[in-house]
């Protein structure tokens, strides 16, 4: 072994002893090579470690990792690949859903498990909802203006949604397979009654 004459440390090689004496007992200081930085360090290794922060300013967000990166994007990619993406489980212990961000987890919780705090904006309706988008959809389909006409031209019904109109057509009018009895007319009808009403208008 090679003992240090200044302290109690011993080294396996003369080279390691020389480095130790230079770094710890020579009185030399190592100044950061960045012109805007005036920090000094006791050892060259500490100065080099410090210099990485100038070249690669973004430190890994994992406290157990000492890696540095040129950009936030590269750091996030490193975290996903090396440390695994954090998962945010639903607050409800019975719900199996998990998300890759706290924001998405919170939005899910409000929409599916939160308290019913939003009242329908129609004063005559007592329905309550967890989030405003649910209430808005309900309002459009239940209280909004009926602006969609029935696809059957003989029918005067109006609907708030296309889905409701299509259900009405299939239930009330059925497939329009009955041709007008007037040979000069090409219109089709779902029922004979509709066709007869139409014929009376000819």
Automatic annotation (TrEMBL):
| Residues covered by the C2H2-type domain | 2-27, 30-54, 118-143, 178-202
Primary localization class, coarse: nucleus
Recorded GO molecular functions are:
zinc ion binding
Q: Name one GO cellular component term.
A: nucleus
One GO term under biological process is: regulation of transcription by RNA polymerase II
PANTHER family cross-referenced by the UniProt entry? C2H2-TYPE DOMAIN-CONTAINING PROTEIN (PTHR46179:SF13), ZINC FINGER PROTEIN (PTHR46179)
Q: What is the designated name of this protein?
A: C2H2-type domain-containing protein
Q: Which organism is it from?
A: Melampsora larici-populina (strain 98AG31 / pathotype 3-4-7)
The protein's superkingdom reads: Eukaryota
- Pfam families to which the protein is assigned, alphabetical: zf-C2H2
Keywords from UniProt, A to Z, are: Metal-binding, Nucleus, Transcription, Transcription regulation, Zinc, Zinc-finger
InterPro entries registered for this protein in UniProt: Zinc_finger_trans_reg (IPR051061), Znf_C2H2_sf (IPR036236), Znf_C2H2_type (IPR013087)
Q: What subcellular compartments does it reside in?
A: Nucleus
């Amino acid at each position: 072994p090679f003992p240090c004459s200044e302290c109690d440390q011993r080294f396996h090689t003369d080279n390691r002893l020389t480095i130790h004496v230079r770094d710890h007992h020579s009185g030399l200081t190592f100044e950061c090579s960045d012109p805007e930085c005036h920090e000094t360090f006791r050892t060259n290794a500490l100065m080099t470690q410090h210099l990485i922060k100038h070249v690669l300013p973004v430190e890994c967000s994992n406290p157990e990792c000492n890696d540095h990166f040129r950009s936030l994007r590269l750091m996030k990619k490193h975290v996903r690949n090396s440390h695994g993406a954090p998962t945010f489980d639903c607050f409800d212990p019975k719900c199996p859903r998990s998300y890759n961000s706290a924001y998405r987890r919170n939005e899910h919780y409000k929409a599916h498990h939160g308290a019913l705090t939003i009242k329908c904006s129609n004063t005559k309706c007592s329905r309550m909802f967890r989030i405003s988008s649910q209430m808005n959809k309900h309002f459009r389909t239940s209280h909004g203006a009926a602006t969609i006409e029935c696809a059957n031209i003989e029918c005067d019904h109006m609907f708030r949604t296309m889905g409701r109109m299509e259900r009405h057509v299939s239930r009330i009018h059925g497939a329009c397979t009955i041709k007008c009895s007037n040979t000069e007319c090409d219109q089709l009808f779902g029922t004979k009654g509709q066709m007869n009403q139409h014929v009376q208008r000819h």
